[in-house]
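Anyone else keep sequences and structure tokens together like this?

Example one:
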Amino acid sequence: MCELPNKIAAMDEFNESNYNRLQIVKMFFWFVIVLLIFSSSLCAQQEIEQKNVLVLTSYSPTVPVADLWDKGIRSVFDASSVPPVKTDIEHLYHHRIQDHHYKKLLVDLYHYKYSKEKPDLIIAIYSAALDFAIKSGSDLFQDIPIVFGGIDRQSVENRKLGSNIYGITNSTSYKETLDLALTLHPNTRHVAIVAGVDFVSRQSLREARKIYRTYEKRITFIDLVGLPMAGIQKKVANLPPDTVVIFIMLLKDGDGNEFTAVEALSLISPASNAPIYSFQSHHFGYGMVGGYLSDVESNGKAVAELGLNVLKGAKPSNQPIVHISNYQLKFDWRQLRRWSIPEDRLPQDSIVEFKVVTVWNRYKGQIFAAITLILLQTLIIIYLLHQRQIRLRAEHTLKDRLIFEQMLSELSSEFTRISPMMADSKIFDSLSRVGAFMKADRGYLFRFNWDKTKFQITHLWEAEGIEKEQTVRGAIVRDIFPWLYENLIKGKDIIISDVAQLPGEAARSEHKYCLKIGIQSFLILPIQVENAQLCAIGLDAIRNERKWLQEDLDRLRLIGEIFANALERKYSEERAKANELKYRTVADYTYDWEYWSNMDGTLEYVSPSCKRISGYSVQDFKENPALFREIIVPEDKKSWYAHSLRSEEKLKPGEIQFRIQRKDGEIRWIEHVCQPVTDSQGTLLGLRASNRDISVRKQAELDAKRHRAELTHISRIATMGELSASLAHELNQPLTAILSNAQTARRFLAGDGIDVDEVNEILNDIIHDNKRAANMIKQLRALMQKKELEFTSLDLNIVLRGVAGLADREAFTKDATLVLDLADNIPPVHGDAIHLEQVALNLILNGAEAMETIDSQSRELRILTAKHDDNTVRVSVRDQGTGIDETHIDGIFEAFYTTKTEGMGMGLSICRSIIEAHGGRLWAENNPDKGATISFTVPVSRD
């Protein structure tokens, strides 16, 4: 009985514990539910908004390209999670979209269908879809970005696109594919064009024909456009030879029957007697050979990737239209076999598909391995047998080579040590050693003269037992062996293993000689050493016929070069001695003072003429080489040192004029010319110099210069004489004004009321007129002075205005109008003002006189200045006279040439001398209308 209460208490305790646990589970359950609700709403808030893309296609959903475009576009959008994209496709049926009523129904349908859920992006495939999206869908798709594809670049350029339109253009491969076909079939004379009557075929054909017009002069085009399918099959079966077929597109034939492009191609290809080429990858494998094929699926991917970037907010404004060329050069192996086109003629990177795998292609690895194993075993056996022979031959060759190299080294050393005069005897000895080593019966050395007209055997060795032959010793080889001479002079090796190999008629003399003395084989090699005469070395085999190896040629050539170098050393030494003797003979008796100085300043040679020119003997200069510099006058030493340094640094000839003081004190002018002497490596060895006494010539030049200055001064005096009347008038004006103003002032002063301001004004006028007369007299005195050229920086316009002031009155007396047309922007010039005034004044007076015979109303004399080029300023004096006789226009500047009855003909000649002394140019030319223009240039001042 006691146990029952205990059990009841225990039960109550258990129930209370379970209740508490249940409450905790309930609370946890509700917490989870609240958390899930909150999380789902949070996730919903954070969910990325889905984007809607509407794809408008120009074609029907049944055409082959539909699946390819759809696959390419969806592969990009399906892979995108940011943002997720929902894609809708609408097919416009390009053959129906041309109907206005059908187009209006589509617009109404799409307006209803997409009014609530408008697309975020429109992708237009081909031009019909793009035109629909831009024009017909302007209200429905307003402000929605458009991305297009499948349109060529030219079609896009002809359209006016908005700022929210992007796209990818493709170029057609019509030209590339035709060029490919013409390359693979170079004899092609005809190209058959196959196309349908549907909208797409006609549009493609139009574009292809534009491109193919440039080929019409090279090939004949056969038009198979718009025919029924049966007609096309019949035509392609009877195409003329040397024809290829270009399949453009055919979706509907001339009878209105509709096909897919691959169906049409599959029907045409079996009937064709010529290979077919096309442009689309989805046509591949249905009977065409191949071509540059457009990959529709890749185009779809590219358009979708551009559209995805637009959806993400990346506006490609810098380049909204992108051009791509994703063509593949593909060929059908079966068609290549059918038309016998070898694969090695295909362009690089070509893709060949549908190859039939042969047994060789499938198992060539295993077959090759088995054959290789058998061959390897055979080769190992052969190799082991042959190796012993090779080793024996190598040992013999090595021994033979060591003997030759030792002999070569000894010969080279011996010829280096011996005197050049002993070269001949040493060559005779060495020929015997070389001939014995190379198992020859005769050895010889030829030598040409410098003109290569004479060719003789200079050294000849014959082995023991060989009869001594006298025919060729010292004879001119050209006369005896013309064929041999012609070949050696051209540098050809003569290698004859059997004299029967000699060319019959050309080498008749050589063949006869070989038969006479029994030569069976011979070898002759031309040897050309730098800066030496051509040589040749040869060997004869008389006892036995000899086959000459390359090793024989190489060895004999090395020996020949040693001999040729030794002979050149000998002849060079002989020439050097002869040249030295000749040079000393010429220099000793030359009129000029010659010397040759070494790099250390010592004098290698001084000619005896130094005594006559300088007063010092040869011994004086040899004992004191610095004497030459010491006798140069101090004023000219700076120029001498600059010239000397320049000649040594630049290693170029130089010349200079300077003065020396003779031993007796007399000053003489010297014209010095020097030539640096270098060795073959360009190292300076010394200087050769020639000094000529030009004192008489210098004095003549100074006298001529003084006479020119006097003549120029006389010309100015003569010009002033011509202007005397005008100058008197010009001076009379200010003097008369001074007198008039002075008399007026005196009357004012004699009156009762004196106006001080009026008197001051009169006195100012007197001062002004006085200055005017004084300046004129000063300018006239300057022109009358006799002086040398003094170059300064001048404003040429100011000089010409002063001259115009002097000449204006003279021009007026000749009814001529003097016009100054002076440029404002000309730079200062470098010249002498007085002499330039003389030139300008002479030209102005000549121009005024040239117009005396014409109507007085046309007598305008214009003086112009302008910038001639970057370095000179041009002055022109243009008259309106009768011009200059073209036959004498180049001679008017010559001395004593004149057309005036009382003229001396010196004015223009002096003008030219003055301008040339300034470093300018003076010339004359007739004007296009009338009159003549005389111009001169003056250098720009660099100060």
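And example two:
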Amino acid sequence: MILGAADELFTWDAAYITIFSQEDEGVTAVVTFDTIDGRRQEVPPPYASGTLTPTAKRAIAEGGLLILRDDGTATSEYSELIPFGDTTRRSASLMFAPIKKGEKPVGVLSVQSYTHGAYTQADLEMLQILADHCSGAIERTLAELKLRQSEAHLRLLTEQIPALLWTTDTELRFTQLFGTGFKFLNLDPQSLVGKSVRYFFQGDGFSSLHIAMHQRALQGESVAYETTHEHHIFDTFVEPLRDSGGEIIGCIGVAYDITQRKRAQEALSKFKLAIESTESTVIITDKDLRIEYVNRAFEKLTGYSKDEVIGKTPEIIMSGKHEKEFYDNLLKTIFSGKIFSDIIVDKKKSGELFYHDITITPLKDESGGIKGFIETGKDITERIQAEESLRRAHGELEKRVEERTRELIESNTLLKQEITERKRVEEELERSLSLLRATLESTTDGILAANRKGEIVNYNRNVIEMWEIPQSLIETRDFEKIQAFILNQIKSPERIRRIMKALEVQDDADSFNVLELKKGNIYECYSKPQRIGGRSVGRVWSFRDVTARKQFEEALVRSEAIYREAIENASGIPYRMYYGTEKGKLTHNYEFIGEGFESLFGFPPSELTLEKFEEITQETVILDPEAPPELSEYSEAFRRGEVSKFRVDFRIRTPGGAEKWVSDCSVPILDKKTGKVIGSLGILQDITQRKLMEERARIQQEQLIHADKMIALGTLVSGVAHEINNPNNFIMLNTPVLIETWESIEPILEEYYAENWDFLVGGLNYSEMRTHIPTLFSGILNGAKRIKDIVRELKDFVRQRPPELMEEVDINAVVKSALCLVENMIKKATKKFIVEYGAELPKIKGNFQRLEQVVINLLQNACQALPDTDKGIFVSTSYNPETSSIEVKVRDEGVGMPESILKHIFDPFFTTKRDSGGTGLGLSISANIINEHGGSLNLVSTPGEGTTATFTIPVKKK
């Protein structure tokens, strides 16, 4: 448009418009034209190097420049004589005009002609006028460029979010979708734009839940819920989406994938349940053998509770029945990283001794270092005692046989007595053998006894079933053949064969081996010599199937290691509580509460009752989205076994007055017989710091969002302000012309009126219009001036100034600027508004825009506090010479505030207007701004009488 106007005014053969940056002296071409072969066309810019030519620099420095080439052929000093596109000829007439924004040069407008003497000084002045018109267009272009860059940056950020982010309109149709989470669900976000939320969740069992939550957001709620989609579990948050005027235009939602976290929690719960359910004792220690955990089986066996042993060493159950070398070997083995297994005599809390079959396994970290130990054990006292009884029975039998044999040799003459005695001995022996047979058949072990001649002298049914020995083979009683049959089933028969050969030589030696069968079973094999009269007469073999035990032990070692990691990383105060009834009322009896309770709650565990807990509780947050909404209903459902967990956050006030947040996470304790809930096992955690960090993060997020909005608003307002100013300037320029025109034609109309009486003008009688037209013109002119003032104030408000900028600020100008921006709000809120400006107030060092923001916040609060328009608002500025400070007061005759609210009024996110969209950030941010200026913000309020907000800022002496 500019170059077209130049063409009509004085024509041109070549022309360009460029933008110039003073910071880096960079040049950006806007448009470049040249006439080639008689046709005007756009060509590459002449500034390929990115810097201005000397002539253009001179024009920027000195002003408009006119160059008229002589007719001679001498080379000119100006490089611009050679045009940008057609290098076959030279320009004869050139004009350069700087483009400025205020006093700052921002570009160059140049036109050239191949005709000698084509331009005059008047043409140069007209070119300068056109250049002045370029500044607004260039400024809009720069603003649009920054806006596009800001939008691209925002889109880049949202597309990189590791979650699912979407927005909808009020009909719940998707408008935008971002985030890498869609990629993991194999979804194309762009394919969902325009489709309904109902369409997206139509195959989801929780469709009604999603729709209900989005509809609640459309009503102004902020909702959070947990849901499942395509086997993924998500924490989902939906907020109302509002336009700049606060109207809800849709929803904005975000969902985070928490599937892995949920699965880890479920696995940990199963591991813990397995450990607590096993009948084997479990002890977990640190690397210094300090006990960190024992299971229920340990407590039941030893009589010690967890609290009595935690922090102590396993020496608490040592009986002292073993030599020092035994314990030294145990420690040497486990500290070398090896597993130790043996039968040890331990002592219960009551002093009773018991045989403990233990296995101690070192727990190692990723680098191979020992970080602790896990001991599993089983009480085998009854088995040991049974074995000792069996040995005593065998010894007794051998002794009696020897005695009877000796008596027979010595008493040949007493044959009859000998026969009688022999029958008696045979009968007793038969009873003993019968008892032995019953013992052999009742044991779960497989027993096989052979004499030194290689004959099977005794066996039980279990050994036949364990080794699947054919009846025909066992009836041969040939130990060598049976041994070969057994060895054929073992994975490493040569090793066992060598051991058995060695036992033939060392016939008085005991033996123990673990046999791995080809079919996968694992047997423990015990072998002891059989003696009569101190002489070995054979050997007894005992086999025990330990397959299930070994598999369980391996699984237990793996699960214990994982559980051990979980326990080490866990924090909180554990407790166990059982339910009861007293006089028909449900009671809670705490069996134990871990350390740290008193430091968290401010009173000892002995004083804890349900009534006490309800008394200190100020607020509750139920974390289970599927739980009943009321805490009492949730608790009842938990006690009835209808929910599998209890997860609630409590805000408490301790007896000392401190406010804290406590997380309660517990699982039910079930009666083994009836399956009913009889209590709960849980952990109390102090989450006060986490809550404070969440609030702090939310504040920072709100501030970042506010900053981004202000940047975007500033860019938008700058462009809109120019768009408004252009037509408004036409109004301001043309209205005086219309007034002069009316004043010129009014006598003619008056004369016509006097001669012809009344006539219509614009649909009204002239007699009425002649009195109103001057008023109408005056109103138009005043309105245009007001538009100009509002645009100027709005541009000043959104102009981005660095927070640290400390300029000379007139506090009266700050208040006037703020009143201009909130004038409509004040008019709607009150009929009585009074401002008193202090005279000749000294200026202060500060940031005009941020102080203006404080005044606006205080005025908005005052307007919102008024119950009706008859109540007033009073604003004043003054100087206090005693404190050498500027004071600004905003007083309202509103509803006022009680002391309980007033003491929290500067807390971030504390608001009494949450339902109407209040965020609780205004006064918190205002107080921070005043503190940055070295001043203070104070509020005094009386319920029913109103509130006075006063901020003071010191005047620094020069």
